[in-house]
Amino acid sequence: METAVLAAEERVLEGLSERQREAVLHGEGPLLVIAGAGTGKTTVLTRRIAHLISSKRARPEEVLALTFTEKAAVEMAERVDQLIPYGYAETWIGTFHAFGDRILREWALEVGLAPEFRVLTRPEQIIFLRERLWRLPLKRFRPLGDPTRHLGALLGLVSRAKDEDIAPSAYKEWASARLATALDPAARDAAERHAELAAFYEAYQQLLAEAGAVDFGDQICRALALLRERPAVLAALRERHRYVLVDEFQDTNRAQLEMIRLLAGPDRPNVTVVGDDDQAIYRWRGAAAGNLLAFRALYKDAREVVLTANHRSTQVILDAAGQLISYNNPYRLEAMAGIDKRLRSLRDAGLPVRHVHFDTISAEADGVAGLVAERLGQGFRPRDVALLVRSNDDADPFLRALNVRGIPHRFTGSRGLYAREEVRVLVCFLRALANPDDSVSLFYLAASEVYRVPETELLRLNRYAVRKSRPLLEVMRGLPANEELAGVGGEARERVDRLLAGLDAAAAEVPHRRTGELLYRFLQASGFLARLSRAADAESEARVKNVAKFFDAVKAYGEVAEHDRVPAFVAHLDLLRDAGDDPAVAEADPDEDAVAVLTVHKAKGLEFPVVFIVSCVEQKFPVKRRSDPLELPADLVEDRLGGAVDAHLHEERRLFYVGMTRAKDELVLTSAADYGTARLRKLSRFVVEALDLPSPAPTPRKSQALEALARHQPAPEPAPGLERPMRDEELLHLSFRQIDDYETCPLKYKYVHRLRVPLLVHHRVVYGSAVHKAVQEMFRARLQGRAFGEDDLAAAFRSAWVSEGFLSREHEEQRLQAGEAALRRFHREEAASPLTPTGVEQEFAFNVERTRVVGRYDLVVERGGRVMILDFKTGDVDDVAAAQKRATESLQLDVYALAHLKTAGRLPDWVELRFLESGLAGGKRPTLDEAARTESRIRDIAALIRRREFSPRPSYMACGQCAFREVCPHTARGPETEERPTA
DNA sequence: TTGAAAGGTATTTTT
DNA sequence: TACCTTTCAA
Length: 983
Prior knowledge:
Blueprint: H1 2-14, H2 18-26, E1 31-35, H3 41-54, E2 63-67, H4 70-83, E3 92-95, H5 96-106, E4 118-120, H6 122-131, H7 151-163, H8 168-181, H9 185-210, E5 213-215, H10 218-229, H11 231-240, E6 243-246, H12 254-264, E7 271-275, H13 289-298, E8 303-307, E9 309-310, H14 315-325, H15 333-336, E10 344-345, E11 354-360, H16 361-377, E12 385-389, H17 396-404, E13 409-412, H18 421-434, H19 439-447, H20 455-467, H21 472-477, H22 490-509, H23 515-526, H24 528-534, H25 538-560, H26 566-578, E14 595-599, H27 600-603, E15 608-613, H28 647-660, E16 663-674, H29 685-691, H30 705-712, E17 732-735, H31 736-744, H32 746-754, H33 763-783, H34 790-800, H35 809-832, E18 839-848, E19 851-863, E20 866-873, H36 880-888, H37 891-904, E21 910-915, E22 921-924, H38 928-946, H39 956-961
Parallel strand pairs: 1-7, 1-8, 2-3, 2-6, 4-5, 6-7, 9-10, 11-16, 12-14, 12-15, 13-14, 15-16, 17-19, 20-21
Antiparallel strand pairs: 18-19, 19-20, 21-22
The chain binds a DNA duplex through residues 68-70, 95-98, 100-101, 119, 216-220, 251, 253, 281-284, 390-393, 414, 599-602, 619-620, 623-624, 626-627, 629, 651, 655, 677-679, 885, 888-889, 956-957, 960-961, 975.
């Protein structure tokens, strides 16, 4: 290994011209090395470091090597170690971030921080802000119903401001200058918005300082501020580190650029940077060519070395990649700085780059697996082959296809730990322990592989619990003495006993033991760990690793928590999850001989003999562009790229370039037309560009609706015994909620309406139902001719209030006040043109064949023969268009209309949603057409329910919102939600 | 030709 | 839920 690496390094040096070698090894003063893919970027840098030290030009501690990623730092240190094994111990090799951290810790007291200040992770930032929400100067970014909805976006803005090295004071100044000169209302509004954002930024920094904490990325910012304000500190650092070397300079952001400028200084700049703009794949404004140009502008006399001799790939691959990247002109260094960066292969010509197109994604996955198998037959090792994907989710079908063919493979994703079965069991155990009423978790735990309570019996216990409105745990405890449940079998009883014994034993320990200890005992006592470790296959190994990883999280909590006990940990975990925290599953053994499936980002810096870039279609690669939820003002951000027209597309193209240049011998690009979505996909423009194909014909046909439906249907689950289909003549009751839930996901319907797994109350439900009840009371009084004043309404609201599910006492108080204020306003506004209801909470029921649809109208108003049905809603809808959209799409209103048609013989003249907080309304005039469509919709769903068809329908949005996402084994990854949604 | 409505889709990753 | 693209209607 060592000699191989050294030999490779020799090759790199041999590839250099005399002048280049001289510059790299012996050069003094600023040096810019532009090193294309596979030309030995790290080699040049490590050689230079080793040379500086071994030639005694620099003492080891005078050399400072900065990288962008941890991975790069480790690799660099290893290679220097091979060159001068013991000579570099004092050399600082690490990331920019770690370096900023070190400076800050050394001088922490100078900037008013204790040296042991805490660094908050991203999820911790959200938790931190949530707890202090009420002290933040937020108005328009803290909407009524959901106080934390914008925190993620706000933090994103702050972190971008930090990357751009914009201080809160600078932002504030800018905003108030804007405010002073804004003339028209639109400009004024924009300026006010930014003033608020700037105030938030400042307040947040203040809060962090008070708490003795900084957030990720802040170390560099604060270190910079320190260096600017204390010239003595800066001088000391410059004295210490006379040589600064930077790897991967193209991915460096503005604050890091500034750090180099300060450290190297204009007077004595002994700085070397190595980079290649075409491989910049992390989107920070002005990175890529912009940073390299900024460096050139800063050090006009810098020596420049361009490395183009490629040791990795065949010329065919390099040419295709070069052709692709030329589409980024003129925003490339090559074009902007007049450099020739065309890569020359030092190898034979090689196989042509291929593009293979398939009809469907499954054909593509299968085809690729077939091609991989072919290569293995030709004598390639599995580890020689890589499948590169653009998004983690794209890997799924390929993993399955490799699995089917029995080809060893490993996938390196970047999240998903909490979704793993073995981790879920642990979480449910802790939840059940922390909250005995949490029947969802208990249910899952009982059904899990640890206790295996038979599902049919478990359902029975659960139904009984629901009927008696008691927690499942209580029913389990009362099982031996319960005559109604005498029919529950012996096996189930025995397993329930084991479960209860396990829980009781653990519960007794809760006050005395730390979370980790308790969890460990559970694993041992239940035999779960033993069973996992006994199995010798790779899958079990992975599971054990994941369990270990979860233990790390538990341990990490124990290290910072004041009281490391289960209830506190569960609360902490819930917050983390809500904040979008989802660590990666455990890494597979890197030495394992397996086909690598990974994202292109993860592949940066790696190489493989055979590379497949899969799913090369528009919208996937390049991915659709997503704009920032909150934009930094453009004139605060220094543009280092001369206003590139489409920065997003350029970055995607660089990413594709990185993917292509990973290949040593063979590169295959694949695509398909049909990815199971309603629309057919177009071939990626990158394939067209790289291979010089004719522009693809426009999408030829639309896929048949039925075909699309069939694709959505997942493989049928083996149905558990109990669920016999309903006989046709049996009556099925359906409510609007049930229909809606079934449409969202049949499995959710099963959880909510058949299993009736009880849910913990969410604050939005408390709020909504209290408002609703109050309004109902008001109209009922009006119907009866009673007076009902504003105060009565407020009183009704408060008496309907349940104190449950709120984030904090302050949050609850704020919601109470908000609700009351909204109701009072509603009362006043309504008094201007009072509704005269003819029905309040009026129940209805009608049949669609043997299905009885039941429900109630909130409010019916009949006047002059016109019938209007109203439904009241809470939740932030703050413009007319949104309200109207909600109404147009409302299944609930459709059901109302159909109900009125069926029961009164005619359609209502108007159906409407009223949004109480904003006073906005959206409505529509029902049509017979629509009613017929609603009826057939109901008929279809009823038929499926009768067949007991409860296959999950995981989807991006539905799963992110679903209350069962913790326990549902089919969860698709949802968007980061900062709030736990309601059922 | 224009505008509104319906319909489809959802990223990667650093510290 | 928010954005974008396509389709439909005027």
